[in-house]
Amino acid sequence: MRFGVDDDGIEVGVKNPVQACTDIENRINDSISPVPDYRLNINENTSVIVLTVEEGSNKPYFYKSKAYKRIDS
User: Fold this and answer.
1) Residue 53's pLDDT is what?
2) CB under 8 Å to 41, separation ≥6 — which residues?
3) DSSP letters for the chain
4) Contacts of 30 (CB under 8 A, 6+ apart)
5) Measured between alpha carbons, how far is 65 from 62 in angstroms, rounded to an integer?
6) pLDDT digits (tens, 9 = 90+) for 37-71
7) pTM for this one?
8) Where are the domains of the chain?
């Protein structure tokens, strides 16, 4: 998932990408159990944040105490 990209796919960046990464990390850590393996990377040129989540081995994962099943890509 990329943050700082508009609906047309144009990279517009995030105003404060370091703070945005902290906010994203906090939301993931506070809402998903067990915490998945993920990475956040900031493109220094565009201020776009890329979130990469690895497929987990500790399934099922719960979001706010509810399990969801993906039925599409």
Assistant:
1) 94
2) 49, 50, 52
3) -EESB-TTS-B---SSHHHHHHHHHHHHHHHEESPPPEEEEEETTTTEEEEEEPPPSSPPPEETTEE------
4) none
5) 5
6) 999 999 999 999 999 999 988 889 999 999 988 78
7) 0.85
8) 2-67
